[in-house]
Amino acid sequence: MKLLYANTVGGSDTVPEALEQSDALGALDEEGQAFSDALYTGTVEHMDAIDQQIGAHATGWAFDRIAKVDLSILRLATYELLYREEIPAGASINEAVELGKRFGGEKSAKFINGVLGAIAKA
Fold first, then answer.
1. Which of 6, 8, 68, 80 has the most CB atoms around its CB within 10 Å?
2. pLDDT score for 23
3. What angle, rounded to 10 degrees, do the helices at 89-103 and 108-121 form?
4. Closest CA to 92 of 70, 112, 67, 63
């Protein structure tokens, strides 16, 4: 999620630099690192389709007005919902809501839950 946020706000750091700055490397074993890399890479590769889904299901919100943290969380979870069948939809949504509570604004968790719920139903 942090890498996607850096990508969204136009950070110039490379993936390894962003990971090192966020201290995420110390928390992940080799398998976790590979999984994280796959999620980031997959999300970036499918960004246009993911953004179309978010835009279509963020009822009442202009896409460019979605908070960057919320957008990063939504992108990651939408990638999981659409392209990672081995990850249960409920798990993706729950993790995204928790990230929204931790890193987003006061209403982020509810917004994220609503958008992802709509995407999952579609």
1. 80
2. 57
3. 160
4. 112
- The Cβ of residue 50 has, within 10 Å, a number of other Cβ atoms equal to 23
CB 101 within 8 A of CB 108: yes
Tens-digit pLDDT profile for residues 2-26:
777 767 766 555 556 665 665 555 5
Domain 2-121 has CATH 3.40.30.10: no
- Kindly compute the dihedral angle of the four CA atoms of residues 48, 50, 56, 60, in this order, to the nearest 10 degrees: -100
CA dist 50 and 43 (Å) reads 8
> What are the domain boundaries of the chain?
2-121
Which pairs from 112-118 meet CB under 8 Å and 24+ separation? 112/70, 112/73, 112/74, 112/77, 114/59, 115/54, 115/57, 115/58, 115/74, 116/74, 116/77, 116/78, 116/81, 116/92, 117/93, 118/57, 118/59
Q: What are phi and psi of 10, to 5 degrees?
A: 85, 30
